[in-house]
Amino acid sequence: MQLLHIDSAITGDQSVTRPLSARIVESWKASHPGTEVQYLDLAKDTPNHLSADALGFRTGQAATTDAQRRENAVSEALVSQFLAADVVVIGAPFYNFTIPTQLKAWIDRIAQAGRTFKYTDKGPVGLAGGKTVIVALARGGIYSTSEGGQAMEHQESYLKVIFGFMGVTDVRFVHAEGMALGPDAKAQGLATAESEIRAHVQTA
Predict the structure, then answer these.
(1) If exposure means fewest CB atoms within 10 Å of the residue's CB, which of 19, 24, 58, 136 is most exposed?
(2) H or E segment and range at residue 73
(3) Which residues pair with 123 in a beta bridge?
(4) Can you tell me whether residue 101 is helix, strand or coil?
(5) Domain architecture of the chain: domains with CATH
(6) Residue 5 has pLDDT above 90, yes or no
């Protein structure tokens, strides 16, 4: 079994999602002996955001410059790594109501027509099914318990849509909310996250 572990928090030792994603990976390895792990730290190894040089996988045109060849190689490496994984564990903090720009840059590289999805006369079809994706979410406030909060968050909702578009139906979320609301709220949020980790990892 191949597991791809991705972190995207830019806050280093102050990150909430980094220890949570590590906890998910260790729990998964304990429950699934023989799991092989690849690690990608998007805060350190961020792919360039999409540019004209990086659109080779969308246009189908052969690279004609060194810059295009470099960008195409990055996209190919990232999508191949994603497709090879049976399990993907992602640390996704909440920045300005959505995911970090570093994580969005990675998603833009793996969302490739013909590789992770295709268009048909009946609409788009995902090609990357059969995976389990587990996302560790951290939020300073609490957004999951009210309609107003749910309308403001474009983190969990976006990730559910984009992975679903690519054919991934088994997307699980670990929620650490209230991280900026004081020590009691933070402790409660982390306890909830720990409980969700146990539940998600025990599910085959």
Answers:
(1) 58
(2) helix 66-84
(3) 120
(4) helix
(5) 2-202 (3.40.50.360)
(6) yes
